Amino acid sequence: MTDTPLLQIENLSTHYGAVQALRSVDLTVHAGEICAVLGANGAGKTTLLRTVSGLQPAAPGSRVRVGGVDVTRSPAEDMVRHGLAHVPEGGGVIVELTVEENLRLGGLWRRDRRDRARALDEVYALFPPLAERRRRPAGTLSGGERQMLAIGRALMARPRVLLLDEPSLGLAPLVTRQIMRLLHDLRERTGLTVVLVEQNAASALSVTDHGVVLSQGAVVARGSSAELLADDRMRHAYLGF
Amino acid sequence: MNQFVSLTFEGIANGAVYAALGLSLVIVYQATRVVNFAQPALALIAAYTAHTVIRATGSYWLGFASAVAAGTLLGVLTERLLLRRVQDRSPLNAVILTLGLLLALRGLAGMVWGNLQHSFPPPMSFRDLEAVPISPEELFALASVALVAAALFVLHRFTPLGLRMRAAALRPESARLSGVRVGLVLTAGWGIASAIGALAGMLAVPPLLSPTVLDAVFVYGIAAAVLGGLDNPFGALAGGLVIGVGLSYVSGYVGSELTTLAALAILVVVLSLRPAGLFSRATVRKV
Q1: Can you give the residue range of the structural domain that contains B60?
Q2: Cβ A109–B178 below 8 Å, yes or no?
Q3: What is the mean pLDDT of residues A194-204?
Q4: Within a domain: residue B123?
């Protein structure tokens, strides 16, 4: 692990009109870590990711750094250029485009054409079902395949940090396990750093190193995954299992 | 029979012009859900620019190129300076803005170039050939619009810019998260649309240029776009040809005073059968 954290979130706040949706959240993720963001519906998990990636404006005094570079005020379209890829809730797959067009879109901003082609091959190797359906509209994919496509599109950018918003949403437990295993393998093989938002805390904590628990937009607990799993009070109050 | 053939070709050539105008409306509508009522005024200024350049240099093609360049620039400026300011408001604001721009630019054209008619040359001034049922001007209109449509198809389907444009139109947020600079892509779309509008203007204006010359053509262009379905470029092309040929038959067999009425009639019949237009994808999207 390096000295500078790869992703450093300090005092991050944001508002929806008069409603404060995030209250000075701090979160530090080092390279190669998988970090869980847990909490009930409406706790601010999705808002946290959207504010980090610039889709939602951060309040004054907030700070987000990627690899030491301040990206707090960077527009969302520049985030991939800073090494941060965000898979939004539901995946954000463009159903009218083909599978391959969705994937190519993810790497389009990079100048290195040869490496773009290589990244495409790697994503297909990672997700064989996508390779078989590359010319089909993304709308014809199953829920699990769409989530694969969403993650694949993010990987096309060769990100250093992957923000993943509820990949298990609406998926069967078996598919969810596959996705969790995939994140684990990716980290082992490529050193990918992941911030994983999940409502399904048990499944998330099975692959993460550490995590935070949000409630009403504020961090109410943080610790290693083992600590969070062992804290019965926390589990009952916020994680629901 | 001879009349039928020549009416058909005339209709196709006119239809190509309506199709080009329809296409320019569809490109903007697809990207921003705004019908750009200022399009004929942008094309008008482009045509006046061509008029000035042709007068000064004597070269039609230099004028043609300057019209397309002026059209592109006007489209880019309209998006950057005006439309961008209202993009987060109700779409009605944008529509009213384009209407206002239409009136302002048409007035400006009258102030700068005068409200009198100027003669305006067609692209080709050969004599019609007896054996061929289509005139060189009609052929040029048809060929240039077909070429533009084909180029647009290639751009959309096979180029990185095309992929960015489609992504930005379909799902702006996903496009931005993939690194697409959606604002720039929108500007490019307006530029391309307005260049095509300028081409349509160059084809529609001859023989006489005046501030109101494109008004009727624009009505048929809107009809073409609506007929085909505002979100489908191929619909605009087909819609333009249907309107062009239909109106040509009406004016040839029934009477030219009925053409505008016929355009409305076609519109009413088609829209009552298929409210989203002949080729709209809206119905597919609902599933």
Answers
A1: 15-214
A2: yes
A3: 90
A4: yes
Contact residues on chain B for A88, CB-CB shorter than 8 A: 173-174, 177
Mean pLDDT of A218-237: 87
Per-residue pLDDT at B287 exceeds 70: no
Residue B283 has pLDDT above 70, yes or no: no
Residues 152-171 of B with CB under 8 A from A: 160, 163-164, 166-167, 170-171
With b for 16 or more beta-carbon neighbours within 10 A and e for fewer, the B8-27 pattern comes to bbbbbbbbbbbbbbbbbbbb
**Closest of A74, A2, A35, A70 to residue A161, by C-alpha:** A35
Centroid of chain to Cα A105: 18
Cβ–Cβ below 8 Å for A55 and B177: yes
Domain with A178 in it: 7-96+160-239
The answer to whether position B198 is within a domain reads yes
With 80 as the cut, is the pLDDT of residue B280 above it?
no
A140 → chain B, closest CA residue: B287
Residue A181 in any domain: the answer is yes
A86 touching B (Cβ < 8 Å): yes
Q: Report d(CA A125, CA A157) in Å as an integer.
A: 16
Whole-model pTM? 0.88
- Residues 137-156 in A contacting B (C-alpha not used; CB under 8 Å): 153
Alpha-carbon span A194 to A182, nearest angstrom: 12
What tokens does B209 get?
């240029």
pLDDT digits (tens, 9 = 90+) for A97-126: 999 999 999 999 999 999 999 999 999 999
Please report which confidence band the pLDDT of residue B285 belongs to, taking 50, 70 and 90 as the band edges: very low
- Over residues B150-175, the pLDDT tens digits come to 999 999 999 999 999 999 999 999 99
Q: Is residue B222 part of a domain?
A: no
Q: In this complex, which of B163, B171, B180 lies closest to A77 when CB atoms are compared?
A: B180
Q: Which residues pair with A84 in a beta bridge?
A: A161
The nearest CA of chain B is from the CA of A101 a distance in Å of 7
